[in-house]
């Protein structure tokens, strides 16, 4: 079984506007064509990739090693025929045809088409129409169009190679896509799951949406990661505050506030994920009102800032670095204390510890260090 992908890229992109066809525009740091080729070239299940270019564009494209280039025709179906012909004699058994203008296709969409081709001669992704459909004239609704059984067609569309080549050669007149050509030749086409992110860049507005998807923001989720690091030195005292828990110890930690080094690292991780500075910026040590302050004030502030900016805290991971006190016996209480302050369930907070093998300032028991990571999600 040899599977090829044909990427049709010979269109002029007239509806998308701009001073060059849409496949040459840069989105999220890469040209549209490069995103689309990368969906297939070097991907498991795809053995060969062919890019079909307009004759005027040949100089614009240096194919990655292993990618074939051929020239297209005056219409999409003519370009597909050029791509299919270029593969003759290459031993190809299955072929996927993809629009270069769909650079955001989720891998699962491609995988579903390939899987369906194991059992059917043709398969293509589609999305059921969910909105009501109107008929209209001059901007006024003239009637309703039943949407039952209607799908929005996407690519890649997959076929047994020889059957599609024969279907294209026999086809008379234009065709919207290869499913139309295959059906005209009596080939049944299975519908596989499409995806909203699999948009075809058609109009100028589509570029911004495609860019959001390609930068990971089009999933509807904005995911941020922040880290925090803090150190406090030991001084006189009979306990230390660590992650909201009073832990008996022969010495205390020195600081402007209660010196809860773990909670400070967690707080800074949240500020970091929000790109909103650190504790020192929000609670300056020069301000006497924070002298001896309980550190949950800082953590609550960071959590509130996250909420005000539309983020929920997905998880926190905090590591305390010290020889003593031993953290293990208190870790569960620390998790519970921070979960209560942050309004999270305990399984989203991790508190763990390590020694530094007696090396460095923590190894010499001069102080305690803490590192933390926070993941914030805006749904
Ligand atoms: N002669 C053509 C026409 C279209 N296509 C390709 O077919 C796909 C779908 O077509 P469409 O979105 O309509 O692209 P364009 O034809 O470039 O756009 P427009 O119709 O706005 O000019 C695109 O990947 C396009 O490059 C092609 O290879 N050869
Ligand atoms: C093949 C196709 O992408 C299916 O949706 C589409 O038909 C091609 O684009 P066009 O805008 O119809 O030319």
From TrEMBL:
The record marks 147, 200 as: Positions MEP for the nucleophilic attack. It catalyses: 2-C-methyl-D-erythritol 4-phosphate + CTP + H(+) = 4-CDP-2-C-methyl-D-erythritol + diphosphate; 4-CDP-2-C-methyl-D-erythritol 2-phosphate = 2-C-methyl-D-erythritol 2,4-cyclic diphosphate + CMP. Its EC number is 2.7.7.60, 4.6.1.12. Pathway: Isoprenoid biosynthesis; isopentenyl diphosphate biosynthesis via DXP pathway; isopentenyl diphosphate from 1-deoxy-D-xylulose 5-phosphate: step 2/6; Isoprenoid biosynthesis; isopentenyl diphosphate biosynthesis via DXP pathway; isopentenyl diphosphate from 1-deoxy-D-xylulose 5-phosphate: step 4/6. Residues 223-376 form the 2-C-methyl-D-erythritol 2,4-cyclodiphosphate synthase domain. A divalent metal cation binds at residues 230, 232, 264. InterPro entries: IspD (IPR001228), IspD/F (IPR026596), IspD/TarI (IPR034683), ISPD_synthase_CS (IPR018294), MECDP_synthase (IPR003526), MECDP_synthase_CS (IPR020555), MECDP_synthase_sf (IPR036571), Nucleotide-diphossugar_trans (IPR029044). Residues 1-223 are annotated as: 2-C-methyl-D-erythritol 4-phosphate cytidylyltransferase. The keyword Metal-binding applies. Keywords: Isoprene biosynthesis, Lyase, Metal-binding, Multifunctional enzyme, Nucleotidyltransferase, Transferase. The record marks 15, 22, 256, 355 as: Transition state stabilizer. Pfam families: IspD, YgbB. 4-CDP-2-C-methyl-D-erythritol 2-phosphate binds at residues 230-232, 256-257, 278-280, 354-357, 361, 364. GO terms for molecular function: 2-C-methyl-D-erythritol 2,4-cyclodiphosphate synthase activity; 2-C-methyl-D-erythritol 4-phosphate cytidylyltransferase activity. Its cofactor is a divalent metal cation. PROSITE patterns: ISPD, ISPF. Residues 224-379 are annotated as: 2-C-methyl-D-erythritol 2,4-cyclodiphosphate synthase. SUPFAM superfamilies: IpsF-like, Nucleotide-diphospho-sugar transferases. Bifunctional enzyme that catalyzes the formation of 4-diphosphocytidyl-2-C-methyl-D-erythritol from CTP and 2-C-methyl-D-erythritol 4-phosphate (MEP) (IspD), and catalyzes the conversion of 4-diphosphocytidyl-2-C-methyl-D-erythritol 2-phosphate (CDP-ME2P) to 2-C-methyl-D-erythritol 2,4-cyclodiphosphate (ME-CPP) with a corresponding release of cytidine 5-monophosphate (CMP) (IspF). Belongs to the IspF family. NCBIfam families: ispD (TIGR00453), ispF (TIGR00151), PRK09382.1 (NF006899). This is Bifunctional enzyme IspD/IspF. It comes from Seohaeicola saemankumensis. The lineage of its organism: Bacteria, Pseudomonadati, Pseudomonadota, Alphaproteobacteria, Rhodobacterales.
């Amino acid at each position: 079984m040899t599977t090829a992908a044909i990427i049709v890229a010979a269109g002029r992109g007239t509806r998308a506007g701009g001073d060059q066809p849409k496949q040459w525009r840069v989105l999220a740091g890469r040209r549209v064509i490069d995103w689309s080729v990368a969906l297939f070239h070097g991907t498991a299940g795809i053995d060969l990739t062919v890019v079909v270019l307009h004759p005027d564009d040949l100089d614009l494209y240096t194919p990655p090693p292993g990618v074939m280039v051929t020239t297209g025709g005056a219409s999409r179906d003519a370009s597909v025929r050029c791509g299919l012909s270029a593969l003759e004699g290459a031993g190809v058994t299955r072929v996927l045809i993809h629009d270069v203008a769909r650079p955001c296709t989720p891998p699962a969409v491609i995988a579903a088409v390939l899987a369906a081709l194991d059992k059917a001669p043709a398969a293509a992704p589609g999305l059921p129409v969910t909105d009501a459909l109107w008929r209209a004239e001059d901007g006024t609704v003239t009637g309703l169009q039943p949407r039952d059984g209607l799908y929005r067609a996407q690519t890649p569309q997959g076929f047994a190679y020889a059957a599609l080549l024969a279907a294209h050669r026999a086809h008379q007149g234009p065709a919207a896509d290869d499913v139309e050509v295959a059906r005209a030749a009596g080939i049944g086409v299975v519908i596989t799951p499409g995806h909203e992110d699999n948009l075809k860049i058609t109009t100028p507005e589509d570029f911004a949406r495609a860019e959001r998807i390609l930068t990971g923001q089009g999933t509807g989720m904005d995911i941020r990661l922040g880290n925090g690091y803090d150190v406090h030195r030991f001084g006189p005292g009979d306990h230390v505050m660590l992650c909201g828990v009073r832990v008996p110890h022969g010495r205390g930690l020195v600081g402007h506030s209660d010196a809860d080094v773990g909670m400070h690292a967690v707080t800074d991780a949240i500020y970091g994920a929000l790109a909103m500075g650190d504790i020192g910026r929000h609670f300056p040590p020069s301000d006497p009102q924070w002298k001896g302050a309980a550190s949950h004030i800082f953590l609550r502030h960071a959590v509130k800032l996250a909420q005000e900016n539309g983020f929920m805290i997905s998880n926190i991971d905090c590591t305390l670095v010290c020889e003593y006190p031993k953290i293990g016996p208190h870790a569960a209480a620390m998790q519970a204390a921070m979960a209560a302050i942050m309004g999270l369930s305990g399984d989203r907070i991790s508190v763990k510890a390590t020694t530094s093998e007696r090396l460095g300032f923590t190894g010499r028991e001069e102080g305690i260090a803490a590192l933390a990571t926070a993941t914030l999600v805006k749904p």
